[in-house]
Amino acid sequence: MRRIADSTVRRLSLYLRTLEGLEKEGRATVSSEDLAEQGGTTSAQVRKDLSFFGSFGKRGLGYAVPELAHRLRDILGLGREYRVAIIGAGNIGQALMRFRGFDQRGFHVIRVYDRDPAKVGCEWNGVVVQDEEELDTDLRADPVDMAIIVTPAPEAQRLADRLVEAGVKAILNFAPIQLRTPDDVVVKNVNLALELEALSYGLRHR
Amino acid sequence: MRRIADSTVRRLSLYLRTLEGLEKEGRATVSSEDLAEQGGTTSAQVRKDLSFFGSFGKRGLGYAVPELAHRLRDILGLGREYRVAIIGAGNIGQALMRFRGFDQRGFHVIRVYDRDPAKVGCEWNGVVVQDEEELDTDLRADPVDMAIIVTPAPEAQRLADRLVEAGVKAILNFAPIQLRTPDDVVVKNVNLALELEALSYGLRHR
């Protein structure tokens, strides 16, 4: 399969949310127009996005809701549960631990690390904060699927190196730096200040 | 100016961070290669991104650091301070209030609203949580430049409508729904569960 843009993957997730709502209501079919509205896009874009992954839907009948939901879950790799470690128990790290949106989607935070002795041993949401020193041996003995780095920028690369070394293949990075990782490691970045800068750019150029 | 992709704006923010670091070190010039490395991209991409905004730099000499930093701050609308309101004082809202990365970039959280009586009146980071009921009159009397919606999905659209009605032109939305807003309102979305789904997609299709 050819490389799909991040923005397409993002829309697939939004279509899936719509489909899951419709599944609960017992709806059998949905039009590309309805999917488009919920995903904030056009019906042509919906058809284009879905066409990357083969042929779905029938002209005039729309898409079969359970079938398309099942395919999208499969495409997005959501047919399973994921074990997640959070590295950094600061404000954002704590908020992520308590964030219910992760568990609901099959992403379970099972471990949290920090190097601050004042934080190590604290329990949040049933998970005890562990000493960062233990990270390497822990992850080798009992691997996680994903790690979320929520540390200050100067520590992030060193931690990413250790995570990769311990076998982690997927990292969500909140630190405001560009991580260098091997090609077989998937990295996504969330930079909250950058989001506000995108807004200020938008205000400036409306 | 023609519409610039979000991904380009994001890279401009990253180039600016590099330039600001170099300004502190007193460096006079920087090559597109150096900017590329910090921005996680290629020197061709750097030249292309900057060419949208006119001609910078001289072949063989690179870019003048203070001049390019100044231009990027201007392009990104960062030559001023912004007043920000946070709507929703839950886990993520609280973390954002305490997040130092915003103030450093000129985004000042001056007001927080929630509808939970247990939260109204609490003080975090010098800001007292106000009753959501007061939002409309407050924002008309003393406007903010941006609002950050950090509420559950079912409340987000209604709050966005009230913000728009009260004159807010830029919204950062953390609720997992697609907000409907007028064309002159800039909206950016942060969906943390979607970021993990992008990782699971990445793991599935490596």
- Quaternary structure of the protein: homodimer
Q: What is the tally of beta strands of chain A?
A: 9
Second-tier CATH architecture of the largest domain in chain A: 3-Layer(aba) Sandwich
Could you name the CATH homologous superfamily of the largest domain in chain A? NAD(P)-binding Rossmann-like Domain
Physical arrangement of strands within the biggest beta sheet of chain A: 5-6-4-3-7-8-9
Instruction: Please indicate the percent range of residues of chain A in DSSP E strands (runs of 2 or more).
Output: 15-25%
Low-confidence stretches of chain A: none
Total discrete domains of chain A: 2
Q: What number is the mean pLDDT of chain A?
A: 91
Class based on secondary structure composition and strand pairing of chain A: alpha/beta
Largest interface: A-B, 58 and 58 residues
Largest sheet: number of strands, sense, barrel closure of chain A: 7 strands, mixed
| Percent range of helical residues of chain A | 40-55%
The total of helices of chain A stands at 9
User: Kindly, what is the distance between the CA atoms of the first and last residues of chain A, rounded to a whole number of angstroms?
Assistant: 37 Å
CATH topology of the largest domain in chain A: Rossmann fold
Tell me the series of helices and strands of chain A, N- to C-terminal. Answer: HEHHEHEHHEEEHEHEEH
| CATH class value of the largest domain in chain A | Alpha Beta
Shape of chain A: globular
Radius of gyration of chain A: 20 Å
